[in-house]
Design a protein that fits this description.
Helix content of chain A: 40-55%
Low-confidence stretches of chain A: none
Oligomer: homotetramer
Strand content of chain A: 5-15%
Number of domains of chain A: 3
CATH architecture of the largest domain in chain A: Orthogonal Bundle
Mean pLDDT of chain A: 93
CATH class of the largest domain in chain A: Mainly Alpha
Number of strands of chain A: 9
Radius of gyration of chain A: 24 Å
Strand order of the largest sheet of chain A: 3-4-7-8
């Protein structure tokens, strides 16, 4: 028996609050889970700073990765197996890509990527293709196997059906994170009938399609996603924490560049600050390391860095008001001036944050599409794009919604011991 | 209006997966939640190493502390308020004690306390009574208030009804952790009808009693607790991780005492290793700091320390067999010798771990009792101890169950490159 | 103490799967629940023939009525109490109207009302105002109290805030039935965060309004309602059972009018068939009585009546095809002719059924509105109609969706023993 | 392809609140579900009079029967298939026995069986073996197939593994009803981890065994069963309704035997009253028919019959006190005399009801055993009876718990218009 088809002598199960159990029979999957790069995902939270808003959201990316694997496994083993257009030799490839699709995520990915111009997808590729334990396991299947897994995750793999299982507008990734994030935050919005959707998924040559009898379940899934974005992922308090986190990283980099002497030397950040981050350094950068430095930096002499770190660690976040960039740019300019006068560097203490989401989109020729649209399989065998069949989806299709907020340290602005007149003026403009 | 009775202008709510919402109206509670010592509980996991067995169990002690507060708030506001034997002036005291009861927990408390002879209860007292933000808030209520809160948590407060809400065999602490740990691990065993139990709780002068009509709900609660102990808290894989963690701490301390030169200097551990841990040092010791060091120590030259740290970080845990201390001590002695011959220090690589629990106990005069027994309020007004009324509880009452396991690194013992004969002998004795 | 304010010596609770517990403290409510007219609702299913599609949907209207009462009670006691614009003297009125709002429902209301031109709302009024146990309880509060309760349910009561709690586009009635029907059918579509909605409801002089911070929860509720309509309430199999039920009633009435001699004399139906239904007769008409007759009529000589009854009792329902009235009227005409030739009376065996729903509507001046629109309370105190604020709701607002299906007995059409050629022709037109 | 192995062209699913979906692929199962005898189970409630205590408990036996079928299907298809000791040719037999095991249940079985000395198991046999639609379907598989199905249900079938799936102390029947009754009543006590138990079930030649690693899940299941018995099945209010129901049947039979002239002739009861109930008559006796008569009898001249029927229909039940037969027989005798003096026939108005349950029992040689004990499969392959391994189960094993209550019409005893002195005396003895 080859390594690719080797089964464990006894099935292993992980107790999972969302899927009840995650089942593993394949030796390859078991070995991947045991790698140091995969175990590292335990030290990266799935939802970044969200735990500061929803205290239950402390779940890790390992948690989610196992869930995506289990969904793909069930779609294939319980649904696709034996159907036309499905080639069993793609099974292991799909399972590995599902398990490893988030492997390159770093700590608080969103903020890190913005500040240091990183892309977690590059690191996923690097880990799969580099000198890692993960690569060793995959190479053991076949010398080209790491490349294939990397291509599926990069959406460049030739078999688009395989790609669409992991990355489309109704893929295993989205289904798992909606259910999982709903579970751990405790909000009910993310729930939809995944079991029903899995039952109506059918393999086609170039994509997964959905039997039209399951259209309502898909509508419900899309609405769940919409709600989770605005209720959880873009929650203004979460974004406040993210703003502060981003500014901490900015400040530390700036200080480093200015040859500031840190009390606690940020050796883990050197290569990052110098734009020459090696894979091995990246892998060591987990959230424990970040939190270690933030705690240490609470005691730095630089008052901006220490203030921001204390705010983050002790959840003393910025407050916010709505901000309309079309109407209020003059106000913002004026506020920046006033902040400087009040002794507050506006680069760090007056921050506009924008969130934007497209609940669903059909395919627009010539445009860059992030994820594939959803196609229905009609009773007569025709394929129809979802928004042409569902009035609800049509109504929201392609409509981007954007929200801007202006963040600032309300506690300082209300502190009456210094700069009372300027602060009063600031508060008037902010309307607080 | 005094600070003690001050209400927030608008109620604050936290979304909680277990209780749906945690409600805060009292200014004092809101201020306590905002302290740095309370926020630190976000960086201490509720279940220590359990997340290595049940990947969902990544929830923090802050999470649990808010839950205990909410349960006590609901018992008082929805149940006790207006009843005889209940004095409304105790309300704030109960809420504060509930919120703060776990304040002194350190990282991986169980292991730390064992290795360094610490007691988290001492630190809870120290934080409440010392120079802390928490103390400042409490002192603002009344100069004696910190002392009273500390006494309630220490179970020495004069009003035993107040104490029993927080510490008895059916207190808010236990009710929250059973439900919460069941939720985050995903096991169903911890569920019981808390709403029913809260409805039948009645205040009496010296304790909370349970209306006898709710006896079955209490039986179910006790069985849930029993199941959670053996299915979750004493799970052999969790204990394996704990064994390794304990041995890492032992080894680091030993190396420090032997003046070993660490590549990464363990400055956060100095006072701990020297048995002169200051409160301020303790507060900084969160799980992020521990994980930071463990990752750093993966690269230490000492092979025991680096091996154990790699095992912990990458979840390459020890395996186990059942161990019967009455019959197998000779085997253990022999194994210790063989381990040494195989180049494995038995102090670190051959570990007996024992777990023991008493599902329920009545009061035994003259014995030290950990928690108060449960009393039923009969229809005629009499009070009866639970095990005299419930056959199920009587059957398990006072029966301690103990389990011993022997842990070892199976991967090394199966590695055939060195010491093959000795390892074979070891494996034979272990029966693996 | 007056009867209106009398409390039970001890609170009574009903275990409810949807709201956990239903709490009763008011003597008036307790007495109303004990009346024969209210207890009769145990023998009327909440969802008519739906149990033939979703086998769990066997829950009664009593079930739902208690739920609506509990929601209104919680909105008032936990939310409105003490707020401006809320007058505590309306509390009991609201609770009674909530509990009794469905009192006049008969067996399989939908079908009965259509065939016999009845209106359950008339009977609700009649029971509340007539010589009934319910009326006696209400009169005991105050001589005008029955009239007020009846007016609230009829939406003619002067205080529109009170009316809107029971009848608006986001009232306690709808919230309960969505959650309850989702629970008993087992579909997940009906779930939404009622707790959140209750927390953001505010009383205004003429209606309940929703704080705009809760807008997303309301969007989710509207989508849930939409899904429940098309996934459950308008399920084609349920409508098939309803078609057959309606035709049974038609046939029995026709036979009665033709002086047919029933083997089992339908004495319970006399006054109904003769259009002189007295209240006392109506109250006796529960679903047990209907099922009794349907079973008896399985043995009637009239082959249409006995066939339809056997179909209903044994769930041997009609099959269906989509029907487009704009294109297929000629086909329908032809089918009617062919059915006659095949010996099948098209009045009973070829039935078009139409379902139609408006997911949400704003107020249209001059048009008859069924239920009040939803208004948001903005942070600045303004009131805005929901669809002007929510893009999702705007997208679906006022858009009526209608669905037509054509029902027929496929088993007979496929039976090859008689009329083979005609049946073949019929099947071709139907496309089956 | 033979009828026994014929699959539906497309899998049918039933939405089930407990198991999410019930899946049907086998033509035989689909045809059985469509029979009139199986559909009749829609008109028999699973929990008899329990809906008068827990208003959600309106679910039918059809509901439960589908659930038992689904559990057995999953145990076989997901667990047993391909294992030693499992013969695939038993699959259809097991599925049919699971689906049909409750086929003979009549309306309010418990009460009917007691009053008329019936046994629903006899009727199950009669329906399977008699001239019924069910028999026709089964005979179509094989001429001996009805007999085999009947034997499995009667526990006389030669293959004891097959029998134990349907009838043991941890069979599919019990697992379904605990989960289902918990769901519909809304109590949480019935929950246990069925998925876990199904995963650890293994086929052995003569029984299903449970891998010892699943022992705690089984303990939890046994405790759930214990709780459901005392919290739900033996709920004193449910038993009150049952007492009244029993007495209605007694009274009607007595009146019939005394040649009383009923206003509404009980033709459906004739053969029952005369002890010559034919199968066809029995099948017609569903709960709708019973409720029809009870409503009609509310207007009978016999004051006992009409009073009891009104009580049942309008849920005006008897109240109760605890009764100790060892100490209070003299009181009961005295009460009987006083009831007569007060004009209340004690045969109908003073009723002792006893409930008794054995939570778990091991096999006792020579005694009649109702259900097989549970056996664990140890890691070394040995089989051990559960109570020898589990301390919790040992503690409650073989301990029968019995409860006696005395029921009476409190409203009449408190009515002061007649017999005041005697009633006062009665109330004193009853302690009410």
């Amino acid at each position: 028996m080859s390594y690719a088809t080797e089964k464990l002598s006894e099935e292993k199960v992980f107790k999972d609050p969302v899927h009840r159990y995650v089942h593993v029979r394949d030796r390859v999957i078991w070995d991947l889970i045991g790698t140091r790069e995969f175990q590292r995902l335990r030290r990266i939270r799935q939802l970044g700073t969200t735990y500061l808003t929803f205290h239950g959201a402390e779940h890790s990316r390992l948690n989610h990765s196992l869930g995506v694997y289990e969904i793909v496994r069930r779609i294939i083993d319980d649904g696709f197996d034996g159907r036309p257009d499905w080639y069993p030799e793609n099974r292991l490839l799909c399972l590995c890509a599902a398990l490893l699709h988030d492997l390159g995520h770093g700590p608080f990915s969103h903020s890190f990527e913005k500040v240091f111009h990183l892309d977690h997808e590059d690191f996923t590729q690097a880990i799969i293709l580099g000198e890692t334990e993960v690569n060793a396991v995959l190479r053991n299947v076949h010398k080209d196997f790491p490349k294939h897994v990397a291509e599926v995750i990069a959406k460049t793999y030739k078999n688009k059906l395989v790609v669409s299982l992991i990355s489309s507008q109704i893929d295993a990734d989205r289904m798992d994170y909606l259910l999982r994030d709903a579970y751990f935050t405790g909000v009910s919005y993310g729930n939809f009938d995944m079991e029903r959707i899995m039952r109506v998924m059918r393999p086609r040559e170039d994509q997964v399609v959905i039997k039209s009898s399951g259209m309502h379940a898909v509508e419900d899934y899309i609405m769940s996603r919409y709600q989770m974005y605005w209720q959880v992922y873009f929650h203004p308090v979460t974004r406040s924490a993210e703003v502060i986190l981003t500014k901490i990283l900015h400040r530390a980099k700036q200080l480093y560049e200015e040859n500031y002497t840190f009390k606690h030397d940020p050796i883990h950040f050197y290569s990052l600050f110098e734009d020459k981050l090696a894979l091995e350094d990246y892998i060591k950068l987990d959230e424990a390391v970040i939190m270690f430095y933030f705690q240490a930096w609470e005691e730095e002499e630089d008052s901006i860095l220490s203030d921001l770190c204390r705010r983050f660690m002790n959840r003393n976040l910025f407050k916010y008001v709505e901000f309309n960039p079309n109407k209020q740019m003059m106000d913002l300019m004026e506020l920046m001036g006033l902040f400087k006068k009040a002794g507050l560097d506006p680069e760090y203490y007056l921050v506009v944050d924008s969130s934007s989401d497209l609940p669903y989109d059909f395919y627009r020729p010539g445009e860059e599409e992030e994820r594939l649209p959803i196609h229905l399989l009609m009773p007569n065998g025709d394929i129809r794009e979802l928004s042409r069949q569902s009035e609800i989806v049509e109504a929201i299709s392609g409509k981007r919604r954007t929200d801007h907020k202006l963040y600032f340290p309300q506690d300082i602005l209300e502190d009456q011991t210094t700069k009372r007149t300027i602060k009063k003026k600031i508060r008037e403009i902010l309307g607080i």
